[in-house]
Amino acid sequence: MSPAPARAAPLRLPPPLPPPPLLLLLLALPLAGGGPRYEPIWQSLDARPLPAWFDEAKLGVFIHWGVFSVPSFGSEWFWWYWQKEKREPYVKFMEANYPPGFSYEDFGPLFTAEFFDPNQWADILKASGAKYVVLTSKHHEGFTLWGSKYSWNWNAIDVGPKRDLVDELATSIRNRTDLHFGLYHSLFEWFNPLFLEDATNVFKTRKFPTSKSLPELYEIVTKYQPEIIWSDGNGNAPDTYWNSTGFLAWLYNDSPVRDTVVTNDRWGVGSICKHGGFYTCSDRYNPGHLLPHKWENCMTIDKRSWGYRRDAKLDDYLTIEDLVKQLVETVSCGGNLLMNIGPTHDGRIAVIFEERLRQMGTWLKVSGEAIYGTKPWRAQNDTVTPEVWYTFSPKGGKVYAIFFNWPISGTLALGEPQAKVGETEVRLTGHKELLKWVALGEKGMLIALPQLSLKQLPCQWGWALQLTNIN
């Protein structure tokens, strides 16, 4: 990466601070509860069992919010595309709307959050049916949504809102919902002079991680006790540069969230889809088949951006039908869905995002038993009828067949279940009545769906059949 524009340096460079203690002495203490201690090597860290709550949760909400929400044009990568790549739409946007010499740092005071109501956010998130939330505590621009002492004059206390946005949301989430609270944190920063210096030295020096990135990570864990650390942005540097294994060993052994915290796989070049608590593999990752390791599909309701865009069109947003399909396919294949929204610079969740979240919650009120706490079944999708996906609930040995097209014939053919005459029972979630069915040879069944009008259907974005006593 080439050096940043000269005007970026004064704001981004924090005053000299000694590296903070990284609680290394705690590593010598026995782990509470007598559990195993994890060594700062991937072989040991990857052996840590994933806390059960994460797999059971299935659905989370990602929130991309920061200074990039002020221009709210194109992408949350606005700064990079404008000043580094000099992409024409971004350059023209700035020329047309801002005076000459306007810098990205000048957007900071405009990130006002005056309409940010953390209680309202918490209520919307609860209504979505999600079980966890991940907030961008710091994106690649380096602006922290809390008053980090390692991000001098480039944080939400010193500039813009003059509020600790992380603390306010964490408090409301914990007081008003049962969601697990998580934080996204970017390891690198595009234009931080210390990072640029390390990059110039081919990462043989480590000024940036020791004085900025790692101290921030310890700070957010000890201060806010997030149950998800969603790392991102390796800056083309290896995990040894970031001391990722050292941090994770502390996180798993001695941090205040050591028993419940989960982490992803973005800890340095070569770690993605290979190391960490759960795999993300790539943005919008959806393999469509069962994976042997727990994974997450992080994706956006706005197809084109993670941050809020003022210029977005209606067609740019996924429909609720699209989102339900994403959730079902992801869960069937053993993943979690992390569904992203981008709030406005003044702290509002745009009504289209709120609508999608509430619609998802409406669907989950009817069919959530086919999602929450389930496991992948022996078959992920059906071999006879397209767009039928399966999940399995260990409680009661129930199999769920989730479908998105209500057949005109009123009957649904399934090729995978091996039904037992006199034993197998079929219900439509949201309805108590047993449904009639006939076997289709040794494998497969034909199910008579209830004769309901569209208004009587429990939800029109997808339906789940509960099958008991089948193989």
Automatic annotation (TrEMBL):
Transmembrane annotation, as ranges: none
Pfam family, one: Alpha_L_fucos
Record domain Alpha-L-fucosidase C-terminal: where: 380-468
Signal peptide coordinates: 1-34
Reaction(s) this enzyme catalyzes, per UniProt: a neolactoside IV(2)-alpha-Fuc-nLc4Cer(d18:1(4E)) + H2O = a neolactoside nLc4Cer(d18:1(4E)) + L-fucose; an alpha-L-fucoside + H2O = L-fucose + an alcohol; a neolactoside IV(2)-alpha-Fuc-nLc4Cer(d18:0) + H2O = a neolactoside nLc4Cer(d18:0) + L-fucose
Keywords in alphabetical order: Glycosidase, Hydrolase, Signal
Residues of the Glycoside hydrolase family 29 N-terminal domain: 37-369
E.C. designation(s): 3.2.1.51
Superkingdom field: Eukaryota
Keyword check for Nucleus: no
UniProt family annotation: Belongs to the glycosyl hydrolase 29 family.
Task of the protein: Alpha-L-fucosidase is responsible for hydrolyzing the alpha-1,6-linked fucose joined to the reducing-end N-acetylglucosamine of the carbohydrate moieties of glycoproteins.
Subunit structure: Homotetramer.
This protein's name: Alpha-L-fucosidase
Annotated organism of origin: Apteryx mantelli
Source species taxonomy: Eukaryota, Metazoa, Chordata, Craniata, Vertebrata
Gene that this polypeptide is encoded by: FUCA2
